[in-house]
Amino acid sequence: MSTGPGLFSDIGKKAKDLLTKDYVSDQKISISTYSSAGVAITSTAVNKGGVSTGDVAAQYKYNNSLIDVKVDTESNISTTFTVTEIVPSTKTIASFRFPDYNSGKLEVQYFHPHATFSTAVALNKSPNIDIMATLGTPAIALGAEAGYETSSGKFIKYTAGISVTKPDSSASIILADKGDTVRASFVHYLDQLNRVTAVGEIARRLSTNENTFTIGGSFLVDHLTLVKAKLNNHGRLGAVLEHEILPKSVLTISSEIETKALDKIPRFGLALALKP
Question: What predicted TM-score, i.e. pTM, was given to this entire model?
Answer without folding.
Answer: 0.88
